[in-house]
Amino acid sequence: MNKAEIKNRLIEECRHKLLETITSLEATMADAQQQANDYGPPKDRYDSFRAQLMRRRDMMAQQMSKEMQELKVLDQIDLKKEYTAVTFGAIILTDDQNYFISVGLGKIEIDNVIFFTISPMVPICQAMKGRKKGESFAFRDKKIEIRDIF
Asked: Residue 145's beta-bridge partner residues?
């Protein structure tokens, strides 16, 4: 599999994970709203059950908004660009682990190769930021060499 195919597959897997999360959040929001509707208006001024359901729905809506923003961030990655330094949108192969700098979704496996999708804001990304193929960086008292960037 070539580098462009790997990047395409990683982006599709990230998109799939985000869409699964959004679908789950939508279902949870709808459930909370339905429970609140079924419960009806508050029974007295000390009845907090309906308010609790509405807070739950609103919390899920905020989380869903965050996931939608992550999708927009993912769409900003240029699939045709060849990266030569560690930056947003790059895939970094090291002698320790493989990283895809995009959104923080964790571990994704493609053809038995594990990639960690990380945000540009996480400490390891900050440690290797701007480095090029063949260079090393230190993270948590460990020297890590960059084998390839694309």
From this structure: 136
